[in-house]
Amino acid sequence: MIENVDTNIGRLLAELEMMNLSDNTIIIFYSDNGGEQKATNNKPLREGKGFLYEGGIRVPLIIKWPGKIAENTTCDTPVISDDIYPTIMEMVGKGAKPAKDIDGLSLVPLLLGEKSLKREQLCWYYPHYSPQAKMPGHAIRKGDFKLIEYYDPEKIELYNLKYDINESQNLADSHPEKVHELEYEFDRWLKKMNPVMHSLNPN
């Protein structure tokens, strides 16, 4: 599959070059979720598609913006798919803030060399029994810390991603103050977003 993707991206880039459009075309490549474990594994990341661990939510993001992004640059700032829309809007001159309220932030400052975004945390709300994880829950990342809270069965996990990228050392018991802080931040975010809440099946 990787070879197929690589081949067809190459065909696309070659076609743009042939049409003299490559210098005037923004290319954004990313995945919607972590890899499916039946086909491969995501090591050193834990688990894969359908999970709230890094193997399920951390994906590649490559952006080509001719004349704007310096070649061979990388960025370690965590971003989320919600950021793609406001990024494109600013890239094409429609402003950093689209007309309607949205959750994401423009990545243009990062693309032009800034080191961080003005954002406190990233949140994921997944109150479903996915075919893979079969555990509804949510996650929040703030700085290097990430909290995962599962609803069924009830379980809280806390990781420091700077030192534990494979999420093997649960720090919830030893850092109760950080658990409380992240629970508070997630609850505040949830009230602001007001999503459809999970509920018991009456049947």
Query: In the CATH hierarchy, what is the class?
Result: Alpha Beta
- Helicity range: 25-40%
Q: Which percent band covers the strand fraction?
A: 15-25%
**Which series of helices and strands comes N to C?**
HEHEHHEEEEH
Q: How many helices in DSSP terms?
A: 5
In round numbers, the mean pLDDT is: 91
Largest β sheet strand count, sense and barrel closure: 4 strands, antiparallel
Describe, in plain words, how this protein is organized in 3D:
The protein has 203 residues and is of the alpha+beta class. The chain has one domain (2-193): 3-Layer(aba) Sandwich (Alkaline Phosphatase, subunit A). Helices cover 25% and strands 16% of the residues. The chain contains five helices and six strands. The protein has helices at residues 2-18, 54-57, 84-91, 108-111, 176-193; strands spanning 27-30, 61-64, 122-126, 137-142, 145-151, 154-160. The longest helix has 18 residues, at 176-193.
Keywords summarizing the entry:
4-stranded antiparallel sheet, single chain, two-stranded antiparallel sheet, Alkaline Phosphatase, subunit A
Give a brief rundown of this model.
This is N-sulphoglucosamine sulphohydrolase C-terminal domain-containing protein. The protein has 203 residues and is α+β, with helices and mostly antiparallel strands.
List the helices and strands and how they pair.
Layout: H1 2-18, E1 27-30, H2 54-57, E2 61-64, H3 84-91, H4 108-111, E3 122-126, E4 137-142, E5 145-151, E6 154-160, H5 176-193
Antiparallel strand pairs: 1-2, 3-4, 4-5, 5-6
